[in-house]
Amino acid sequence: MHARRTVLPFSLLYHDSARWLFILLLFAGLLSTGWYGIPLIPRYFIGVVDLLSGVFALFSALGTIWGIMAYREFTKSSAAVIEARLAARRLDPTIGDYEYKSYNPVTREYEDGFVPSGPVDFWDKETTVPGWMDKGKYWHILLSLQSPGREIRLKVVRDRELPFGEGRRNVAVTEKDASEEGRALGRYTVRIPQWLVMNTEQQRFAELGLERQQLSALVSDVNRKIVAATHEVAGWERLRVRYPWRFMTFAIYLNKSLPLRIVYRQVIGELSRRQRAQGRACERQPCKRGRRRARRV
Questions:
Q1: Measuring CA to CA, which residue among 127, 95, 286, 61 is closest to residue 200?
Q2: Cα(20)–Cα(28) distance, rounded to whole angstroms?
Q3: Contact between 202 and 219 (Cβ < 8 Å)
Q4: pTM of the prediction?
Q5: Quick check: 181 and 5 in contact, CB under 8 A?
Q6: Which of 42, 80, 96, 161 could form a disulfide with 228 if both were Cys (CB 3.0 to 4.6 A apart)?
Q7: What are the phi and psi torsion angles at 94 (to 5°)?
Q8: Is residue 168 within 8 Å of 13, Cβ to Cβ?
Q9: For strand 151-157 and strand 170-177, is the pairing parallel, antiparallel, or unpaired?
């Protein structure tokens, strides 16, 4: 008898539902702001103050801002995932459909998808991975999902096993093991698609017949989009592992839609980009100084 599992998806269908909800909030806020706010303008010039209408107009305007920012946030999240998959499949049309089976030492059976067997050193040469998979991308996601008191199994599966193309259109799925051993260890299995850990070494795509510069630009574009999609998926699944209850889905969506949080993320992201740019500039400066000294000599 199989143990019952709690399945928590990162669903594009849920994202679309949230987007429509915040579109409704946007238009409702606009209508309410106009209904309560426009009559306040002539009253202001004649010295009449309607405090109640002013409060309603203020909160309606704030609701409009919330709707705009939340809609953009969920649109950006969905677009990052979809664009990464499309870019990866342009480079490798089979990615997402590769068949692979891993041996499970507990059940002594082979199961669909890639998952390391046991607590081994992932960078050990004996730890083999499929040719279409990048160890670094896999390891980065696995480390970002770590949480105190949790045992994380990161499983790479085909799109149809999520499923990605139908139903809820799941990008990733977190499963809580409800067996006695699973509850004791706090075991969670996170399933992600193959294209999120795609191997983008240029030698894999030599048969495409593209020029070197064109292939480099294409690979760089794929890597950039995979990084953006990884950020979305890992951030979402990390919250799923930390708060593994179905009712927390609403709280997670609410948290991700808050304008203050969105602004904070944008500010932190911009500061991080500037720091990286300054770091690269500082790394280049010694080289330029060295060349100038060599020329003087």
A1: 95
A2: 12
A3: yes
A4: 0.82
A5: no
A6: 80
A7: -90, -10
A8: yes
A9: unpaired
pLDDT digits (tens, 9 = 90+) for 68-108: 999 999 999 999 999 999 999 999 999 999 999 887 777 77
pLDDT for res 208: 79
Please determine, for residue 287, whether its predicted confidence score (pLDDT) is greater than 60.
Answer: no
Per-residue confidence (pLDDT) for residue 74, from 0 to 100: 95
In the structure encoding, which two tokens stand for residue 99, read together? 């068949």
Q: Enumerate the H helices of the chain as residue ranges.
A: 12-37, 40-45, 51-91, 135-144, 180-185, 212-242, 248-257, 259-296
State pLDDT tens for residues 169-227: 999 999 987 766 666 667 889 999 999 999 999 888 888 778 888 989 999 999 999 99
- Non-local CB neighbours of 182 within 8 Å, separated by 6+ positions: 3, 176
Cα end-to-end span (Å), the chain: 80
Position 290 pLDDT exceeds 60: no
CA distance 136 to 140: 6
Question: By the 8 A CB rule, do 197 and 87 touch?
Answer: no
Complete DSSP assignment for 92-127: -TTTT----EEEETTTTEEEESB---SS--TTSTTS
Indicate the residue type of 16: D
